[in-house]
Amino acid sequence: MPEGLLDVQGLGIRFGGLDAVKDVDATIPAGQITAIIGPNGAGKSTFFNLISGFYVPTAGAIRFAGEDITRLKTHQVVSRGIARTFQTTTIYKELSVLDGVMIGHRVRTKAGLFDALLRTGREKHDEAESRAGAMRALERVGLTSQAGRLAGALTQEGQKRVGIAMALCSDPRLLLLDEPAAGMNPEETTNLMGLIRELVGGGLTIALVEHKMSLVMGLADRILVLHHGQKIAQGTPTEVSRDPAVIEAYLGSHAHGGQMGQGEQASTTTGADHA
Ligand code: ADP
Ligand code: MG
């Protein structure tokens, strides 16, 4: 396995009495696509929240490109080269695609919302640069021709691409995508897979959380499986889909010898998803 761009060791966070993520050792290799899967409530989004500095871990360490980033704040993590999209991406539907990407990027990367909204003199000075950065990001997601359109007028797929463009504005080395294909039809899902492959082909490292097994199996170089906050498997799609602990976690007592990957959805019946 290539050297990890990101490595976590003994990573954990407790909410009240609940170990949302517990004692996870994992590696995200550079230049690859790593999928994080697991039943609802397994801790996937929390894992991303820990890596991206939204949550401070109660145990363990996170190293990125050789640096300990365990206790860094979100904007510091972004500046080191990690960006993310959210399970439910809020885009600015009433703004142009370009303005929305610029503002979205600013709101997510500054130390506080006020910094983003008040906009210091320096930021005004940087406006042209910021606009150019947003245009570059739109080009990477194939939205150059849509830059002047209202974001809300775009298709579901187009809006997802806007969310990814926002994340790309900070020029990350590692991009975290939380359920990028949620709400998409099969054709849109295929298009999105193409975009993810293109981005990785251009040198980006991607980790994604996804329920759609066809996407995960067709795209991921490596898969990390979480269950009740703990890692139960990590390996290639083939290794993971044959792992008895994984099959048990997904199918539980309903197992009839089925293989993970046959259904479009893994278990999504165990409760509402968490943003
Ligand atoms: P997944 O993304 O795998 O569906 P999550 O990471 O969203 O799961 O959630 C894992 C568990 O942690 C769930 O039981 C969830 O309720 C809990 N959890 C997540 N974030 C918080 C929080 N901020 N406060 C309390 N509990 C949380
Ligand atoms: Mg989630």
Write out the distinct hetero groups bound to the structure: adenosine-5'-diphosphate, magnesium ion
Low-confidence stretches: 253-259, 261-275
Return the average pLDDT rounded to an integer: 86
Number of helices: 11
For the sheet with most strands, the description reads: 6 strands, mixed
- Fold-level CATH name of the largest domain: Rossmann fold
Walk me through what this model shows.
The chain contains eleven helices and ten strands. With 275 residues, it is of the alpha/beta class. The chain has two domains: 185 residues, 3-Layer(aba) Sandwich (Rossmann fold), CATH 3.40.50; 80 residues, no CATH class. The strands form two sheets. Strands 6-7-8-3-9-10 form a six-stranded mixed beta sheet, sandwiched between helices. It binds adenosine-5'-diphosphate and magnesium ion (MG). Magnesium ion binds next to helix 1.
